[in-house]
Amino acid sequence: MTDELTPAQHAMSSCVGAVLTSVIMSPLDVVKIRLQAQQKPFKVGSCFIYSNGLMDCLCVCSHCHGDANSKNSVSSRIRPWYERPGHFNGTLDAFIKITRTEGVTALWSGLPPTLLMSIPSTVIYFTAYDRIKYRLGYDEHDASTCHVPVAAGILARALAVVLFNPLELLRTKMQSSRLSYFQLKEAIKISIGNNGLVFVMKGLGPSLLRDIPFSAIYWFGYEFTKSYQMRHYHTTDVNLILTFASGAVCGSLAALLTLPFDVVKTHRQIELGEAQVAGTSKKLVSTWALLRELYGKRGFTALYAGMNMVLSLE
């Protein structure tokens, strides 16, 4: 079977899907971050992860004005969104109070800058997946090609991660140091001169270990369900509800199986970001060593931290 969509149509549909996903999912992470900041206010130079539903973006706290709940602190109008006072009593209470006091648009605070990275990454990922899938001979009506989505998912995800992982590091560098594009170019030259191309590949290992298995598991389950429907009912049409449910189940399963690597990826992102802010070159332990360290401290609880939130986002 040949692909009916052109690359431009793939890119457009991926872009629309990416924006819709971000609009739906971002409020969940905004509320999560606001609740975290209420319990433990951020400090200048500290980092946190903002997930817009498409990818995890590292954010640097470059402006902090003290305790977010202090009466003597700076007016909330000029505070960063993650530092505004709230006195929330839970997730639902946070949704209600943020909407009432700051307006409904506050639920999408911090989203626009992250879309500059996540939309191109998503477009490349989904477009590459579809093109590779059919180039490798995939046919929904041929059960013998059911392994092809696994290979296509792995290759497409690896391409997106390798292309955009260095850009995420550079975005963090610009955000933390307030560099212009010219200054950033000079900083890149110095960093590569001192550390070689290893500089632009920092943190790549945990990202690949998390994203590649997730992509393989998700696409196999999703395409298998869709293909089975088409073969069983001898049709080119699929049940959208069943396909959506299949995607949700496969995404949740993939997220659950790869969550330990997601935890390591988050730790590594924050570690790299805070090292960049501080201007230090901390030696990083291997991914496996970090997994053992986390497991040694709190057992499986540490490796499956944030499981409920991850499953809700998937």
What features would you describe in this structure?
The protein contains 10 helices and 2 strands, in the order αββααααααααα. It has 314 residues and is mainly alpha-helical. The chain has a two-stranded antiparallel sheet. Strand 1 (47-51) and strand 2 (56-60) form a beta hairpin. Helix 4 runs antiparallel to helix 6. 30% of the residues are buried. The model is unreliable at 66-75 (pLDDT under 50).
Sequence of strands across the biggest β-sheet: 1-2
How much helix is in the residues? 55-70%
- Low-confidence segments, ≥5 residues, pLDDT <50? 66-75
Query: How many runs of DSSP E, i.e. beta strands?
Result: 2
Number of H/I helices: 10
| Helix/strand/pairing category | mainly alpha
Q: How confident overall, as mean pLDDT? A: 77
Fraction in beta strands: under 5%
- N-to-C SSE series? HEEHHHHHHHHH
Question: Kindly, what is the distance between the CA atoms of the first and last residues, rounded to a whole number of angstroms?
Answer: 29 Å
Specify the overall morphology: globular
Largest sheet: 2 strands, antiparallel
Radius of gyration: 21 Å
